[in-house]
Amino acid sequence: MPKVLILGATGYVGFGLAQVLLRSGNYRVYGLARTPEKAKLLTKAEIIPVLGGTTDTAAYLSLLESEHIDIVVDVVGASHSESTQMLSDLRSIGSSRLASYNNHNVRGPKLGFIYCSGMWTHGSSDTHVDDLLPIGIPTAASQPPRFVAWRPAHEQAVLAASDVLDTMVVRPSLIYGRENAVWSQYFGNIYEAAKAGKTDTLQIPLEPNARPGLIHIDDVVSVFHAAVDKLHFIAGTGVYPVFDAVTTWERMDDILKAAARALGFEGQTELVGPKSDDLFSEAMSTSVWGDASRARTLLGWEPKRLSGMELSMEVCARAWVASHDAEAAK
């Protein structure tokens, strides 16, 4: 049975992925946990915890060798420096594994590595893009926002590691659903204004006419499941192992107006664009017109949550409130 280590296993994407891999019956799943409390959460879910962090790599690097882990999935969303260090460490483990095969005159599989990037790397444009187009180069239709400007080069570094690793890059679009983690800054301001009974205009630092590509968290989990299933089939075949994942494209102003209604805010929302130093809101305002046809055809991905964020907002908002209130009560 293949062994999968998930970096970010207690997070927004990672915990759901660990659970679906277990439910498939096809994998033994390990998860990196930063604290004993997080490790206990994984243990309850029958995920084997590995206590450590992305800056404290000794624990999981030892596991890669002692348990002969087959695939590592990085859904941490780490910083540039942390991501670079993790890739360097995995390259070292992968190289040592191949050297061991050679020393014993046997053939064996490479260590697999799936990296979670994102479709923000395409930059903001009304031009159609796909995962076969080069990103982050002068001739690209648009440049990535500053928040993720380092990622195109890191994606290339991941792909270049294919001499010692079986590598793949998966790029989800803007994620919604469940706790709606990436939307908390904006939903939180609306929610607090609603609870305070405010009825004046609430300004939100997003571009009103931005049309981000969107994807529900359930479909993010399923595309990574498909990636784990197909990694070793695709590696070494000549297939370009980069896959965009998106299901809908919606206007930002419509999304936030729907959120305001669902959260009970009786005033008006006005999207005024991000300030020059608000790199996150600049990235959130990225318009990406892409598609996921290669993920569907080559990975066999079948997204299910296709109604979109605006039409699902009543449910999405309730889920966010429940998550927010539970966190606040801790």
Uncertain spans = none
Average predicted confidence as pLDDT: 94
Roughly how much helix do the residues carry, as a percent range? Answer: 40-55%
SSE string, helices as H and strands as E: EHEHEHEHEHEEHEEHEEHEHHH
* Percentage beta strand: 15-25%
- Sheet/helix structural class: alpha/beta
Q: Count of helical segments? A: 11
Distance between the termini: 38 Å
| Cross-sheet strand order for the largest sheet | 3-2-1-4-5-6-10
Tell me the major beta sheet. Answer: 7 strands, parallel
Tell the overall outline: globular
Rg over CA atoms: 20 Å
- Extended strand count: 12
Q: What order do the helices and strands come in, and which of them pair?
A:
Elements: E1 3-7, H1 14-24, E2 28-33, H2 36-44, E3 48-51, H3 58-66, E4 71-74, H4 80-103, E5 111-116, H5 151-160, E6 165-172, E7 174-176, H6 184-195, E8 202-204, E9 213-216, H7 217-234, E10 242-245, E11 248-249, H8 252-262, E12 269-271, H9 279-284, H10 293-298, H11 313-328
Parallel strand pairs: 1-2, 1-4, 2-3, 4-5, 5-6, 6-10, 7-9, 8-12
Antiparallel strand pairs: 9-11
Helix pairs in contact: 1-7, 4-5, 6-11, 8-11
